[in-house]
């Protein structure tokens, strides 16, 4: 009976997320034009573009890149696939094919050895042999440019290729927040036979994100700094997304009795379970009283981080 009641309650959950009438241009301002300008200036020495993206493979990509990608061989690498629900893989490939993206590779660059990463060099070599190199025809050294929106794993891919082909450690800084790579770097060698270098580039957001929903997906995946959007609303959108996808893994993880559509209720349980509390002063008619309350901000941060680390199950947000 309790299970039946829970299922009935889930059917009443939100069917749409209320963004509060926010305008996308004000909430998710596009930027990083300087980085894009430098990338375009470096194209004359580049043989192939490798675009990295993650588990929002359709709506989250930067359409401005298309102006650049049209004149070079282009490989789309969908990274962090350990976090993705790959039951949707064929649907994603068909959608990408309809938009003109023919070469796609699924990777998990944080694995010590990912079989799909080993396919990258042969794949780009085949693509480059089918493409005219113009003024670089006599040059047998290859240069690839790695591009993408922030925090999708560009530097992780470079380091993974170095581990695979050179047996060397990382040469490009990696972090869990967007903005680690802030400039177009010098060339980084990733393979010896053939001689191949990659250009690591800063993550570049589109100048105009197409919708508030797309912007929120990017924020949820860590592409936009949390504090610019607000961890409370990111956590609420995460709860809405998990419920919409029928993913109720958070119930067991945080000892809830049943799925919930109330983010305050969920965050309270997280704070209590993990003992994330804070002391505040309450003003009463008989003086000030110190009380202990759940730390909702800390709980929201934990909830979001758990999702990004794959602790709440595999999803595709598109």
TrEMBL record:
<keyword id="KW-0547">Nucleotide-binding</keyword>
<dbReference type="GO" id="GO:0032543">
    <property type="term" value="P:mitochondrial translation"/>
</dbReference>
<dbReference type="InterPro" id="IPR006073">
    <property type="entry name" value="GTP-bd"/>
</dbReference>
<dbReference type="GO" id="GO:0005525">
    <property type="term" value="F:GTP binding"/>
</dbReference>
<keyword id="KW-0342">GTP-binding</keyword>
<keyword id="KW-0809">Transit peptide</keyword>
<feature type="binding site">
    <location>
        <begin position="151"/>
        <end position="156"/>
    </location>
    <ligand>
        <name>GTP</name>
    </ligand>
</feature>
<comment type="similarity">
    <text>Belongs to the TRAFAC class YlqF/YawG GTPase family. MTG1 subfamily.</text>
</comment>
<dbReference type="Pfam" id="PF01926">
    <property type="entry name" value="MMR_HSR1"/>
</dbReference>
<dbReference type="InterPro" id="IPR016478">
    <property type="entry name" value="GTPase_MTG1"/>
</dbReference>
<comment type="function">
    <text>Plays a role in the regulation of the mitochondrial ribosome assembly and of translational activity. Displays mitochondrial GTPase activity.</text>
</comment>
<dbReference type="GO" id="GO:0005743">
    <property type="term" value="C:mitochondrial inner membrane"/>
</dbReference>
<keyword id="KW-0472">Membrane</keyword>
<protein>
    <recommendedName>
        <fullName>Mitochondrial GTPase 1</fullName>
    </recommendedName>
</protein>
<keyword id="KW-0999">Mitochondrion inner membrane</keyword>
<feature type="binding site">
    <location>
        <position position="203"/>
    </location>
    <ligand>
        <name>GTP</name>
    </ligand>
</feature>
<dbReference type="GO" id="GO:0003924">
    <property type="term" value="F:GTPase activity"/>
</dbReference>
<dbReference type="InterPro" id="IPR027417">
    <property type="entry name" value="P-loop_NTPase"/>
</dbReference>
<feature type="binding site">
    <location>
        <begin position="79"/>
        <end position="82"/>
    </location>
    <ligand>
        <name>GTP</name>
    </ligand>
</feature>
<keyword id="KW-0496">Mitochondrion</keyword>
<feature type="domain" description="G">
    <location>
        <begin position="145"/>
        <end position="217"/>
    </location>
</feature>
<dbReference type="InterPro" id="IPR023179">
    <property type="entry name" value="GTP-bd_ortho_bundle_sf"/>
</dbReference>
């Amino acid at each position: 009976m309790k299970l039946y009641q829970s299922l009935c309650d889930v059917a009443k959950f939100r069917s749409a997320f209320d963004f509060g009438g926010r305008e996308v241009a004000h909430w998710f301002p596009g930027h990083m034009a300087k980085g894009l300008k430098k990338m375009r200036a470096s194209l004359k020495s580049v043989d192939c573009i490798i675009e990295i993206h993650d588990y929002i493979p359709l709506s989250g990509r930067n359409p401005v890149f298309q102006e650049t990608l049209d004149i070079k061989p282009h490989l789309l690498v969908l990274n962090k696939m350990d976090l993705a629900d790959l039951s949707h893989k064929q649907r994603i490939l068909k959608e990408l094919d309809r938009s003109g993206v023919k070469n796609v590779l699924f990777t998990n660059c944080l694995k010590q050895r990912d079989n799909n990463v080993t396919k990258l060099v042969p794949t780009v070599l085949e693509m480059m042999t089918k493409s005219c190199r113009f003024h670089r025809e006599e040059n047998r050294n290859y240069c690839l440019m790695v591009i993408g929106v922030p925090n999708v794993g560009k530097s992780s891919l470079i380091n993974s290729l170095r581990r695979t082909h050179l047996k060397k450690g990382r040469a490009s800084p990696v972090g869990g927040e967007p903005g680690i790579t802030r400039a177009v770097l010098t060339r980084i060698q990733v393979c010896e036979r053939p001689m191949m270098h990659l250009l690591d580039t800063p993550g570049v957001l589109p100048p105009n994100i197409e919708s508030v929903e797309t912007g929120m997906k990017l924020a949820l995946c860590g592409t936009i700094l949390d504090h610019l959007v607000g961890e409370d609303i990111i956590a609420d959108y995460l709860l809405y997304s998990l419920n919409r996808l029928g993913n109720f893994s958070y119930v067991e993880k945080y000892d809830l009795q049943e799925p919930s559509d109330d983010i305050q209720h969920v965050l309270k349980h997280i704070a209590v379970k993990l003992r994330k509390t804070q002391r505040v002063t309450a003003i009463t008619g008989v003086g000030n009283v110190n009380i202990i309350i759940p730390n909702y901000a800390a709980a929201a941060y934990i909830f979001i981080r758990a999702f990004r680390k794959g602790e709440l199950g595999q999803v595709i947000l598109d």
